[in-house]
Write a structure and sequence with these properties.
Tachylectin-2, Chain A, Jelly Rolls, 2 domains, 4-stranded antiparallel β-sheet, 1 helix, elongated
Length: about 425
């Protein structure tokens, strides 16, 4: 099985999802590579559990390899708004950042629909607030600086989405240039604007509701020869449906890093619409400029190492990723019931492996079956255990190469189990 995530060109790194520690929840990520060559993430900051969307602070994270990330601390908060104009509004929603003439401009939004801008001489902040922006009402601000230096500003939901020119001061739009770039009818636009210029074309990434009965779990895109109109719907880049039983939305961006383009997006946890993890996948363009849809991946996982169960890319049933103080990793697959499944995409086997072990706890006897690329490969019997225990199973056909690994749980009675990790042994 060819795994494109294992065969990226040149020095392009392969992401390991989620990108940040399991107790860090950053959704709505806009990714940028600045002059220092590092990639920076600007996103909302969720709290653990089912506490609702977004907190009242932002953190900036940066990396030079997509594997090791620096938390630059609080870059901005509602308490830092000028004269406290938004300090009591409860949350900061999805941001973006732009650079011009030695300064970094952070664009943010708050629950009452206003957008503001703050400025710093550092890409990581802290950012000093300039206050709310006139003539802008709607969430999810995004900025594009075109080749000619003109900056464009995008914001809004549904058919209230707008694009307008930013004035040279980067803090005001020209309201006379405001237009509607996308629509619900033509593009099934939901929210989450993010625009990049690639190969002379304008690629508009957004939260797309084409699938799952209008659920906003997909990131779709549209392409135009112009920054503010003429966008033709191109399709879906990634869909996070299946990452969590309650997942509802998605929001992200495109970014080129070390010669490879990636899509950044988020996945929910805790059977919640929030507590979202930032993830990334390499993307590939066809000769006609279209983007090939990619699936959610765990990253490159290896035999012989303990694979954290909370790196599962797709889940089925009631199982969810949630915090677990008894886990080796601080999070585990929890609320596993009969028929539930967890898919890891992909596991690289350096040499053939004949058996596997699972670190599990269960309220009653059950069994776990292993599938490689959808084909049954072996099973392990799990006794009742109040704390995590290691159980082993044999693979009926030795695993070699790169595979999608799925774990399925079965039991005669209704009880729950947890899974902390998985190891393939030679």
């Amino acid at each position: 099985m060819k795994n494109e995530a294992c065969t990226l060109p040149g020095r392009a790194p392969v992401p390991l999802n989620p990108l940040l520690p399991f107790d860090v929840y950053v959704p709505d990520a806009e990714a940028h590579v600045w002059a220092d060559g590092r990639i920076y993430l600007y996103g909302s900051f969720d709290l653990p559990g089912n506490g609702g969307y977004c907190s009242d602070v932002y953190h900036v994270y940066s990396s030079d390899d997509l594997l090791h990330w620096t938390d630059h601390g609080v870059s901005f908060s509602l308490a830092m708004t000028k004269d406290g104009w938004a300090k009591d509004l409860g949350a900061l929603y999805a941001p973006d950042c732009a650079y011009r003439d030695g300064k970094y401009y952070l664009y943010y939004c708050v629950p009452d629909g206003r957008c503001g801008v703050a400025v710093s001489e550092s890409p990581a902040g802290p950012f000093a607030d300039c206050g709310p922006m006139a003539h802008v009402h709607g969430i999810d601000p995004a900025v594009l600086i075109d080749d000619d230096g003109q900056a464009w500003f995008y914001w809004g939901q549904f058919d209230a989405v707008r694009a307008a020119r930013l004035r040279d001061n980067m803090t005001e739009i020209d309201p006379e240039t405001a237009v509607q770039p996308l629509s619900v009818a033509e593009h099934e636009f939901h929210e989450g604007s993010s625009v990049k210029k690639i190969g002379g074309k304008y690629y508009y990434l957004f939260t797309d509701t084409h699938r799952h009965g209008g659920r906003a779990t997909s990131l779709g895109y549209a392409v135009s020869d112009f920054p503010d109109h003429g966008f033709r719907y191109g399709g879906i880049v990634i869909d996070n449906f299946g990452c969590d039983p309650a997942t509802w939305n998605n929001h992200g961006s495109l970014c080129e890093f070390r010669g490879q383009w990636y899509v950044f997006y988020h996945r929910s946890t805790h059977a919640s619409v929030s507590s979202r993890h930032v993830c990334a996948e390499p993307i590939f363009f066809e000769d006609d400029g279209s983007i090939r849809e990619v699936k959610m991946r765990s990253g490159i996982l290896h035999d012989g190492e303990i694979i954290p169960a909370c790196r599962a890319a797709e889940l089925g049933g009631s199982v969810r990723i949630a915090g677990d103080g008894d886990s080796l990793f601080g999070a585990a697959l929890t609320q596993i019931r009969c028929g539930d499944r967890a898919l890891f995409r992909s596991v690289c086997f350096g040499e053939p492996c004949a058996c596997f072990s699972l670190r599990v706890r269960a309220g009653g006897p059950c069994r776990a079956e292993i599938y490689l690329d959808g084909q049954y490969a072996g099973c392990a019997k799990i006794p009742p255990c109040e704390s995590y225990a290691e159980v082993r199973g044999t693979l009926e056909r030795p695993a070699a190469g790169t595979h999608e690994v799925e774990v399925r749980y079965y039991a005669a009675e209704d009880f729950t189990a947890r899974m902390d990790g998985m190891t393939f042994l030679r």
